[in-house]
Deoxyribodipyrimidine photolyase-related protein
Amino acid sequence: SGALRLVLADQLTHDLASLCDINMADDVVMLCEVQDEVTYVRHHKRKVAFLFSAMRHFAEELRRKGITVHYVTLDDSKNTGSFTSEVGRAITLFAPDRLILTEPGEYRVRAAMDEWRQVLDVDVEIRDDDRFLCTHDEFSIWAEGRKQLRMDFFYRDMRRRFDILMQGDTPIGDKWNYDADNRESPDLTQVVPAPYRCPPDDITKEVLTLVAARCADHFGSLEDFDFAVTRKGALEVLAKFIDERLPLFGKFQDAMIEDEPWMYHSHIGFYLNAGLLTPLEVIKAVEQEYHNGNAPLNAVEGFIRQILGWREFIRGIYWLKMPGYAALNYLEASRPLPALFWTGDTRMNCMRQSISQTARYAYAHHIQRLMVLGNFALLTGLDPVMVNEWYLVVYADAYEWVELPNVSGMVLFADGGYLASKPYAAGGAYINRMSNYCKNCVYKVTAKSGKEACPFNYLYWDFLARNREKLGNNARLGMMYRSLDKMADEKITQVKADALDFFADLDKGVV
Ligand code: FAD
Ligand code: DLZ
Ligand code: SF4
């Protein structure tokens, strides 16, 4: 008999470590849709539909290559509902001589796999996931002895190692980072190109029916499902991004426009994280656009930094710091997640826009996640466990390895500054500068206090005052604390009273 090779929903890559040496005559590849994974957090309907359809298409592609595939659908009457029990069942069915795996993206799944070595009556071989560009060992060597980790230094090393946008030993253009050029306010006269759309084929239609029935009470919408579900489709998304959006990606990277969820972003996170695209091919394709003169350096460098820098850095931290990282709560935040995160029922226009788009598309771009939703969660002191669960549920590109460090490290400062040098806290002026949301908001972004004022304005100072003991010594917040110290007593009393009123309204669900 041959090997049983398990492929998870986020491992849909034809040359995956556990598939590359397949013996077509004897081996079986297994994929399974299991209830435990659908509900350990109750994922957005669109996310489940995307993954199941992509898994089914991938299985078809393997079959077309002549590979034997054991595919278990969620509604298969024999489906036992978990990875462990389904792998056990496949072992009885096929009596393989070994089980070959690629290490999973999540610690939770890795822990289960490590147990399989004991409980399964077969040899278990877990291979490194070589789709990532920095191995766990390389990252821990880089991190060793550093009290705080800074993405910028990691990114420079990665640029050198992979020779991306380099001129010998120096970066092209002589600067490593062009973020200073990447903070323009939105230009409302520019028409944002229409996003890629892939109408459902028969496989996707069947999945949509299944998900509508089985996940009826999950968050989010399946309406007009149009994700790519194959590698071919994902390559089209990438090509469309490169042609139509990349040149302006840098300039408008942080900009937000009402009713415009897609902006100049790439929308490839879903596909990268599920394995339909690989990071290095994306980076090379985008670098080439610079060399061809089709896109400016600030756009190309800014985009490459997200994938070669941030994505690898975030993953490195996850594996270095788990399982402890998930429990960190440096600021001792404990407010339960308000219902408005699920309903979008709020008068704060920036929050309503970001949440309703998230419900509709299982997508929001980085600045909505960080500076609107994240900023709200940080300033109001929401419980990190609940905030993490929300982000893991609602985005179709979310897996714990990438969601957790972004939320606990970047947004909530729950790791005390290991990942980010300061909390990304901001008042309404930032959102007003980067968006047109405030024009249609009942709150006044220019008002600093009182019922009509933009809540971010006083929540910002209240946050700093409340967390002085934990943040007062942070060098990067020095200027803000000096401003707070200079604030008249009445003004501070007003800030605190406004914040208390806001929290009372938040509890009542009327902000
Ligand atoms: P683009 O803006 O076009 O960027 C290109 C690619 O760069 C992304 O597809 C992604 O692969 C990578 N990238 C960019 N920023 C980051 C980052 N901070 N960390 C890791 N990769 C990055 N990204 C996820 O893939 N999954 C998540 O669950 C996730 N959760 C997030 C939660 C919060 C609170 C924040 C602030 C960010 C989160 N991100 C997450 C990072 C980022 O917001 C998304 O990768 C991005 O919005 C996806 O859209 P896009 O493909 O259009 O990205
Ligand atoms: C997120 C998810 C969902 C909803 N369903 C499945 C599934 O049915 N089968 C599967 O193989 N993987 C699923 N996943 C992804 C896993 O929960 C997990 O996040 C990744 O495999 C990373 O370890
Ligand atoms: Fe958001 Fe404040 Fe602007 Fe309203 S005024 S959209 S709450 S930043």
In short: The beta strands are 3-6, 28-32, 68-72, 98-102, 123-127, 166-167, 170-171. The CA atoms of residues 3 and 194 lie 45 Å apart. The chain has 22 helices and seven strands.
